[in-house]
Design a protein that fits this description.
Elements lengths: L5 H14 L12 E4 L4 E4 L3 E6 L2 E11 L6 E14 L4 E13 L5 H14 L5 E4 H7 L4 E3 L12 E5 L3 E5 L6 E3 L6 E3 L6 E4 L2 E5 L4 E4 L7 E2 L5 H16 L15 E5 L3 E5 L6 E3 L5 E4 L6 E4 L4 E6 L2 E5 L8 E3 L28 H10 L3 E6 L16 E3 L6 E3 L5 E5 L2 E6 L2 E5 L7 E2 L22 E6 L3 E6 L6 E4 L2 E4 L8 E2 L4 E2 L10 E3 L3 E4 L92 E2 L7 E3 L5 E4 L5 E5 L2 E4 L59 E3 L7 H20 L9 H4 L2 E2 L1
Parallel strand pairs: 3-8, 9-18, 10-17
Antiparallel strand pairs: 1-2, 1-40, 2-4, 3-4, 4-5, 5-6, 6-7, 8-45, 11-12, 12-13, 13-14, 14-15, 15-16, 19-20, 20-21, 21-22, 22-23, 23-24, 25-33, 26-27, 27-28, 28-29, 29-30, 30-31, 32-33, 34-35, 36-37, 38-39, 39-46, 41-42, 42-43, 43-44
Helix pairs in contact: 3-6
Amino acid sequence: MTRRLVLSILIAAATIAATSTVIAADAKMWPKVMEGENYTVTMYEPQIDSWKENTFEARAAVSVTGGDAAPIFGAVWISGRFDVDRDTRMVDFYDITIPTVAFPEASDEQQQALVAFLEGKIPTWDLEIELDRLVPLLDTAEVAQRDSDELKHTPPEIIIKYMPAVLILVDGEPKLEEIEGSKLERVVNTPYVIIKEKNTYFLASDSMWFDAPAVKGPWSEARSLSKDLQQIDEQLKKQRAEQGVEEPETTDEIRVPQIVVSTVPAELIFIDGKPEFEPLQGNNILAVSNTDSDVIFDIDTQDYYVLLSGRWYRTKDLDRGPWSWVANDQVPVTFADIPADSDVGYLRASVAGTDEAREALLEQAVPQTAAVKHSAGASFTVEYDGSPKFQPIDGTGMTYAVNTSASVIFSSGRYYCCDQGVWYESASATGSWQVCKKVPDEIYTIPPSNPLYNVTYVKVYDSTPEVVYVGYTPGYTSSYVSHGCVVYGTGWYYPPYWGPRYYYPRHSTWGFHVRWNPWYGWGFGLSYSTGPFHFSIGFGRGGYWGPGRYRPYPRYGYGAGYRAGYRHGYAHGRHAGGGRPAHYGNTNINNNIYGRPGNSDRVARTQDRAGTRQQPAVARDRANNVYTDKSGNVYRRNDNGSWDKRDKGGWTGTDGVPSTGDRSRPSTQPSTRPSTGAQPSTRPSTQPSTRPSTQPSTRPSTGAQPSTRPSTTSSRPSSSSMSRDYNARQRGSTRSQQYNSGGRTSSRPSGGARGGGRRR
């Protein structure tokens, strides 16, 4: 029986351990209720109006009951700050103030009493919301988003194989360095273990070796190893043992893969024999079912489409090409009709206008936040390969350091470095460094053609005498917005740096089977691996291809392989396609960079608010079906889809769906708070302005997704009804249930391809 790949083993073990402590999450999270001395307050799920930097504004329907009196319904506006933790997938609202309260059915005396009570009570609540529940709510809010219109979409070399094959990438022509204490040389511009001995090259998998007369092959199973190679083999086994990885078993059933080496950006698609087509219900498109890649055939145009790093490419001929890029908002309209619960339902996230694509876009607006100690700069250092060397950043007056894995930028007479989602500054390229309180606006003009483009997604929000509030959005980890969808990588090729001691690779878009998952973002793996063929990858700080340096033997770095497997649909939650993969245990893969062990001394501990903030209970006897419009009117949605309006102490049916109203808050109600909200940041905005797009959109509409260009702040058009608020709340509840359902699986499905391999 063949073994799962190393990554699957690790994940399965971590999942089994975690499952024993998982408590099933209750889908019923709202409304919240809090008992006071004279009143009982029930708050229904907030409706988000604004989501920018690390601040929010929202409104919520509330009911207040005093004694035996009938409940009084109204609306409350809340504003403040939020903290996000992508590891726990929770959002915490804090520093809450109440700019406005509206109770149309209350007397003046009651209003005064209710305003005073709510303004004193609600800020003391411990208000948390699941990230998966929150994301759809942002669909109706003003959200700061960036559309990266200078990304590159030129297709990589697309290699089709009809037998098991593994793509091995070398970053340009092979660069050899001697391995100290031996007669061997290692190819250092690759994350894989490739050794040259005399005139033969050797490639290590986790259980066997291959050899070839040249780097590009042909490769075959190595029959014997010299003593020097045996020593390296033992070192690799020792490293795997240190990681707690079991040695894979071999059987007679395995199929030895073909080794395909590319020295240019490439993607490999393995189709297991002649393509087999699976029809999709209600569509004129077919999915190629005997592949671990995403291959679609459009019957109407007789075109093949493949999805690579979130981008679509088209050809008439799989074997000969040529391939051309098709923007996500230009694919055939039938792509938007792919059933969400089909085996390829996850592809909808890469089709502009679908609910899945919109939610992926909204995820891009949710930062991972942290409070960083001012003292963090004292221990921060930057290592250069020799004296610091700087090159110009095209289109700007800045320069950046090339002979280091750190992101060091010279701007306006000072040096700035972004490391692990934190900005530092110094008067010298070599330090000393201090935590930066304000990043120059110029830095946010770095174009995608520069390898440091990703740092433009890291912000400094505010500071106090104790900490600096920082955060990064997914662009920092190479997730960008293009043509109504998220894509991975900039598409640009960044040449590596070679120095006297180190080789510094740069971020790469291609070659790693990258796929989007709604719970954990982008993951990647090999095109084919089964049985013993697990190919280890070395990872530097910050992820594959850097920032991170790769050095020759004896430290190769350890990474996990990848196993082909089955697909499953987006809506099924716990399955690999669009579902939540299991937690990664102790494999050092964290969605929250600030939460990684190496950053524990930098980040201030989250304030323990348990003693100062009260945990509201869930009102389990009441449905979460009450809403407020932007004018403070309160509505209830019934199970049959009809709406009632709260009026004169009772509910009255309305004709059709109620209007959301305008964005102005009621001005006639008393308020003791300033209308601008809580603790507004006085810092100048560091939000960059995006460059206007010249790309027209001619794709027939498959949904309501508006363009967010050129403004960095998007506001979806005001609806004539609150149906979108209702739909957003329903989708949030569904996402939350899917995520929590996925957490209760006892092991990871074998289709790791769909959940993403190693986390970016």
